[in-house]
Amino acid sequence: MSDFAFTENALSTWMRGEGRDSDIVISSRVRIARNLRSLPFPLVASEEQAEQVRQTVIGAAEQASEALGPLQPVRLDELSEVDRQVLVEKHLVSPALANESQEAAVVLSADESLSIMVNEEDHLRIQCLYPGFQVKEAWERATSVDDVLEAYIDYAFDDRRGYLTSCPTNVGTGLRASVMIHLPALVMTHQIGRVLNAVSQVGLTVRGIYGEGSEAQGNLFQISNQITLGQSEKEIVDNLEGIVGQIIEYERQARSRLVSESKIRLYDRVMRSYGILTHAAIMDGKEAAQRLSDVRLGVDLGWIDGLPMTLLNELTILTQPNFLQKTFGATMNTSEKDMYRAQLIRDKLVKSKE
Amino acid sequence: MSDFAFTENALSTWMRGEGRDSDIVISSRVRIARNLRSLPFPLVASEEQAEQVRQTVIGAAEQASEALGPLQPVRLDELSEVDRQVLVEKHLVSPALANESQEAAVVLSADESLSIMVNEEDHLRIQCLYPGFQVKEAWERATSVDDVLEAYIDYAFDDRRGYLTSCPTNVGTGLRASVMIHLPALVMTHQIGRVLNAVSQVGLTVRGIYGEGSEAQGNLFQISNQITLGQSEKEIVDNLEGIVGQIIEYERQARSRLVSESKIRLYDRVMRSYGILTHAAIMDGKEAAQRLSDVRLGVDLGWIDGLPMTLLNELTILTQPNFLQKTFGATMNTSEKDMYRAQLIRDKLVKSKE
């Protein structure tokens, strides 16, 4: 059991805000990969070297706290398995940091909008998360954090290649910008394949919401830049913003078409999902994601009143297996999780209506 | 448009009462087939002869009204097509009387527990309907009506063969006793085939709720005696009562087993159906019947509060295609019916909770 602040709420404070286009874009994220000049990359570092990295980064964060606000360092080896997975389910650390890294740590801001992963693939990964479609804002924040830290850390930098990173795909700016986007209408109208294919033609990557290799659930997709070298940070951010803007437009068009051509069938689907979520006693993760997607669309279309979007964001995270375990406090098998998940969704949705 | 009393409510007044075992047996019915000695059976009668039958029976009913209470004669050729089908959907007349009979009429008591069909397969078919498991009570009532009418009508009767009927399967007592029974647990546990097979081995017939040739919907079955000759009326009624009593027992056992072995899965199924019925915007007749069956089981098991069984009985009839048309007043295609059906169920269920 732990008393870390991040385990208290499913939704980070930053997520309670609303950004632009937040009916379609759930969140925007920018991460910057950096490494210390004097030490080998984590994959080839000894335990002592990795420990040195951790101490250096945490030390720098402490020194920078006047400029950045209070930061909490968390050593992952001091967490229970469940708490480590909760960090993943909240998107504060990657699965790789939680499962495969030595001397792994994360430095969190109080509202969890800033998280600095230590000893993942790179020595530091500075992540900034914003609600809605705010890639530029996230990038500006991440850059300012990066600038502050650079005063305390000697980064590995090459004049020709830029910032050096463990994996060549991150060399250069070390910047990855991404959005988590909800595209139910493009999925329902079978246009998603074509759209995602086009996206990958222009140097962007599409993933599930838990990063590389994860499946898209509940019509949520993560779209990010593929290339970090040969483009300026601004070009990367502008390119992502431009293309995501187009996808938002396609999704809006698909929604209007669905509403004008088969409103009653769409309404039926949305309301059935709402009826099932507020009544079912067993709900697996995949069904929950899909039905929450339907309900989110219903809220966007003004068909379901009094259901705040932040509650749906919260439920998306709360209903993940480890968060469930954390919430109900017991070790559970899959069937039990399906029952607790149903109960939690029911309670939260019914309560929000009262 | 018509102003006949029977079109005003889906549920006949008699159906608002509750009988024995009404968690499993919806209703009990006895009908007695009788013919006039002096005229040919309807199938071979001329129009004039059929008219004479109608006048004789309606005249007798009028004369008998002191003993039987007020009776309303209804000529089917004076009804709209929709009203005729509403009579069928309320089980007051058979599809054959509504669709195929010349000079067809029905005589109804005010609470619709007594209906006398005129010029169906036989000149008269006296039907008595009771809520719950009350075959004996229905039989006693039908017999008393028969006795009263016999004072005014000269029945075709043969000392050796008994009452003569158009179809040989009805000769003798002319008695058919039946129950409409709800067997969801036997269906879910795949025992229904075996049970219905056994039923047909002992001289009983199983049908859908709209009689011969109709499919069982919503786990509702009509069980009736096959044989009318060579058994006394009492034997027929006792036999049906005994066997239905056993089926009720099997259904109760299957329900207990389901509850003890897979309660949460059954509860999930019931509550999902309730959630869908209270939220869906499109609902076809088959799905409505199945989900109403689930909800009925949920009410029986005490899982859904404040939902009177009579409302479920009413919805079973209200959601039939012609009743829907009657209720909403317009000519509708199938998709429109599916929308009105969903709306009606939603409104009725939500209202009953307020």
TrEMBL record, chains A, B:
Q: Give the signal sequence positions.
A: none
The alphabetical list of record keywords is: ATP-binding, Kinase, Nucleotide-binding, Transferase
Q: Which reaction does it catalyse?
A: L-arginyl-[protein] + ATP = N(omega)-phospho-L-arginyl-[protein] + ADP + H(+)
* Gene3D superfamilies for this protein: Glutamine synthetase/guanido kinase, catalytic domain (3.30.590.10)
Task: Tell me the GO molecular function terms.
Answer: protein arginine kinase activity
Q: Which domain of life is it from?
A: Bacteria
Q: What is its EC number?
A: 2.7.14.1
Q: Does the keyword Isomerase apply?
A: no
Name all Phosphagen kinase C-terminal domain ranges: 24-254
Q: Which InterPro entries match?
A: Arg_Kinase (IPR023660), ATP-guanido_PTrfase (IPR000749), ATP-guanido_PTrfase_AS (IPR022415), ATP-guanido_PTrfase_cat (IPR022414), Gln_synth/guanido_kin_cat_dom (IPR014746)
Pfam families annotated for this entry?
ATP-gua_Ptrans
Q: Does the keyword Transferase apply?
A: yes
State which residue ranges cross the membrane: none
Q: Tell me the enzyme class.
A: transferase
Q: Which residues bind ATP?
A: 27-31, 91, 125, 176-180, 207-212
* Role noted for this protein: Catalyzes the specific phosphorylation of arginine residues in proteins.
The family assignment reads: Belongs to the ATP:guanido phosphotransferase family.
| Name the UniProt record assigns to this protein | Protein-arginine kinase
The organism is Saccharibacillus alkalitolerans
Its gene is mcsB
